[in-house]
Amino acid sequence: MSKLFHSACKAARSLIASSSAPAPRAASSLLADGRNAALATLANLGRNSTLPAAYAHHLHTNASSHGYAWIAAIPAAAYMLQDQDVHAAEMERTFIAIKPDGVQRGLISEIVSRFERKGYKLVAIKLVVPSKQFAEKHYHDLKERPFFSGLCDFLSSGPVLAMVWEGEGVIKYGRKLIGATDPSKSEPGTIRGDLAVVVGRNIIHGSDGPETAKDEIALWFQPKELVSYTSNEEKWIYGVN
Ligand code: IDP
Ligand code: MG
């Protein structure tokens, strides 16, 4: 039920963003997903003049018999979509850092712009020089590797641009934007593929999964440094058809 509710919220947001709602699908798929529920809800709110009255009527006469009394909550959900915290809460976040080599080479704007242009949202950013102990915490899972000490020396050798980016699938796709660990094997078009040559100077770090993302964000940022806000572009970046 919460899945349906979630997708109804998304559909409602998309419909609010567009000036003309799409025509509804066949009545047989009524209530098959949250999108149709959201369409009917908006008809109820008088926002959608193109929805046939019979369609909305069908929804109402069937709602309680199918155990969909929760649908009454959707107008409230549509209203809540205006609340930036509600929206921010449903989005994935990842930790991205430009290492000292990337900062020194003047690649900050190039790298930030690749995440921005993709459609991800920057929710935290700061320039820091981490201590070696901090670098060792960050790379704790590599402590058995022969390059561990040199890697931590390097990360703590100068300014690092620490960031948190937010968006649907940002953890996995962020890694795609970054490219393979060894730049000699990274695809052209990726950050490391285009801008780096050797593994010891691969200019950028990105969390490799949901757990590491959570841990790394908590290591580098205090909760109050993470800024939840609604970007005006979101209604053009996200939507359902
Ligand atoms: P990742 O940065 O792509 O997640 P990891 O395997 O987590 O790659 O390694 C962390 C960092 O350690 C790499 O980004 C790279 O800077 C460094 N590193 C990885 N493998 C080697 C190596 O074989 N020699 C030297 N440094 C390495
Ligand atoms: Mg890693």
UniProtKB/TrEMBL annotation:
Family, per entry: Belongs to the NDK family.
Keywords (A to Z) from UniProt: ATP-binding, Kinase, Magnesium, Metal-binding, Nucleotide metabolism, Nucleotide-binding, Transferase
Species this protein is from: Triticum aestivum (Wheat)
SUPFAM superfamilies, per database record: Nucleoside diphosphate kinase, NDK
Protein's UniProt name: Nucleoside diphosphate kinase
InterPro entries, per the entry: NDK-like_dom, NDK-like_dom_sf, Nucleoside_diP_kinase, Nucleoside_diP_kinase_AS
Cofactor names: Mg(2+)
Biological role: Major role in the synthesis of nucleoside triphosphates other than ATP. The ATP gamma phosphate is transferred to the NDP beta phosphate via a ping-pong mechanism, using a phosphorylated active-site intermediate. Shows the highest specificity towards GDP.
SMART domains, sorted: NDK
Native organism taxonomy: Eukaryota, Viridiplantae, Streptophyta, Embryophyta, Tracheophyta
